[in-house]
Amino acid sequence: MMPSQVTPLRGLRVSSHFIPSFNLIPNTSLKIYPLIIYHECFSPSISAAAIEAHLKSVGVVEPQWRYTMYSTTHFHSTTHEVLCIASGRARLCFGGEDNPGRAETEVKIGDVIIIPAGVGHRLLQDLDGGFEMVGSYPKGEDWDMCYGREDEKANVEAIKDLAWFDKDPIYGDEGPVLQVVHSGA
């Protein structure tokens, strides 16, 4: 049973994006996993502490920081990332700002972003001031920082070996993260 501060699955609006590789940013080209956004997943009155408590109760990811998003395009090669918006609104870019196949989107408090390893991401604009996220990673995984440089090719190659989630980080035994695997899309 999910707490009332989480939108029931049947009412959750989800968007997903497959983003082609661009320059040395692999994006979603290496695996079948899209960038996934759970819109208005948490109540707009949610606090960062309540988000962290929920994530810990589900037990799939470990909350590791509270911060905004870096304004330089970067990606992680060692783990997937779960970002829960805890305050404010922002415009974000996924895939590299010059990539014709990029995804630019506005997110706000209560949204959750599942970023597969290799997907470039950056902050374009903090729309209200005070944009903050809870950053989480699958239990036992350490994140790295990659920027699409030549010397990162071995890091990028390692993404192919990363396993996907076996439970949804927000909903547990059900959820959009698992539907990606089951549908094979």
TrEMBL record:
Protein name: RmlC-like cupin domain-containing protein
Lineage: Eukaryota, Fungi, Dikarya, Basidiomycota, Agaricomycotina
Pfam families per record: Cupin_2
PANTHER family noted in UniProt: BLR7373 PROTEIN, CUPIN TYPE-2 DOMAIN-CONTAINING PROTEIN
Organism: Suillus placidus
Residues of the Cupin type-2 domain: 71-123
CDD domains the UniProt entry points to: cupin_YjlB-like (cd02219)
